[in-house]
Structures are given as structure tokens and as C-alpha cells.
């Protein structure tokens, strides 16, 4: 079964759906994840955030497909926020190179090339300031 995971889903939702689709009891599913049943219960209720490896295992077990959509400007904003300062100049430069490499002849990517160019410009301005 393929389930598309929206970027608005919370980790607890992914774990809960994986449990439901597994057909296992909480105890057996927790063992599969290498966690205790009380910890699984905390993940499902949202009282604890599952670690990345648990989320990935849940997604893989159920055949989830991750579908993230983000605008170029939102991506640039996030990069600018998460990688600000001179310590991350190399990271921003690497991201710039990635953006250069994907803005090729592919119609889908070319359609969004103006957004990519704007994002690259914003990243460059951040890198030089």
C-alpha cells in the first residue's frame, strides 16, 4: 500500500498510520521498532517525538512516499535562516552549486528556473553579507 505523506503530517501521525497498517499490536509493533510499548504510546499520542530512524522505519514498513513541496522563496528563506553567518558560507556555496546543476534543459525544472534564479540571487546576497 502506497500512502503519500504530506509535509503537514506530524511524526505521531506517521507512526499511528504505520501501526494501524501493520496489523500488529502496540507491543509487537514497538518490538519491531526496537522500542518499548510505553514509548510507542508516547509517540502516537504526541507526548514524545520519535527519532528520525523510527519515522523512516515506519515509512518504509508501510511503503510511504514522502512528498514535500516548497517554493523557491520559502527554500531560500529557510536556507538563509538555518545557514546564516560566515560559518555556513561553504554550505550556502554548495547549495548554490546544486541549484546550478538542476537548472538544466528539463522542462519541469526550466519552468521554475526563474524561481531558482531568484533563490540563487537571494542566497548569493546572503553569502556576501
Describe this structure in words.
It is a single chain. With 129 residues, the protein is mostly helical. The protein folds into two domains: 65 residues, Orthogonal Bundle (434 Repressor (Amino-terminal Domain)), CATH 1.10.260.40; 57 residues. The chain has a two-stranded parallel sheet with strand order 1-2. It is elongated.
**Overall pLDDT level:** 75
Oligomer category = single chain
Helix content: 55-70%
User: What structural class do helix, strand and pairing data support?
Assistant: mainly alpha
Strand order of the largest sheet: 1-2
Please outline what is shown here.
InterPro entries: Cro/C1-type_HTH, Lambda_DNA-bd_dom_sf. This protein has helices at 11-22, 26-33, 37-45, 52-62, 72-82, 89-102, 107-111, 113-128, and strands spanning 3-6, 64-67. The model is unreliable at 106-113 (pLDDT under 50).
List the helices and strands and how they pair.
Blueprint: E1 3-6, H1 11-22, H2 26-33, H3 37-45, H4 52-62, E2 64-67, H5 72-82, H6 89-102, H7 107-111, H8 113-128
Parallel strand pairs: 1-2
Helix pairs in contact: 1-3, 1-4, 2-3, 5-8, 6-8
Protein name: XRE family transcriptional regulator
InterPro entries: Cro/C1-type_HTH, Lambda_DNA-bd_dom_sf
GO molecular function: DNA binding
Amino acid at each position: 500500500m502506497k500512502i503519500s505523506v504530506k509535509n503537514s503530517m506530524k511524526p505521531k501521525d506517521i507512526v499511528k498510520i504505520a501501526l494501524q497498517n501493520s496489523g500488529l499490536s502496540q507491543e509487537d509493533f514497538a518490538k519491531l521498532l526496537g522500542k518499548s510499548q510505553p514509548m510507542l504510546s508516547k509517540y502516537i499520542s504526541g507526548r514524545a517525538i520519535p527519532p528520525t530512524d523510527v519515522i523512516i522505519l515506519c515509512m518504509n514498513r508501510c511503503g510511504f512516499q514522502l512528498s514535500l513541496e516548497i517554493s523557491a522563496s520559502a527554500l531560500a528563506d529557510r536556507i538563509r535562516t538555518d545557514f546564516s553567518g560566515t560559518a555556513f558560507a561553504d554550505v550556502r556555496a554548495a547549495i548554490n552549486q546544486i541549484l546550478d546543476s538542476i537548472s538544466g534543459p528539463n522542462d519541469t525544472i526550466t519552468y521554475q528556473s526563474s524561481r531558482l534564479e531568484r533563490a540563487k540571487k537571494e542566497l548569493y546576497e546572503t553569502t556576501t553579507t
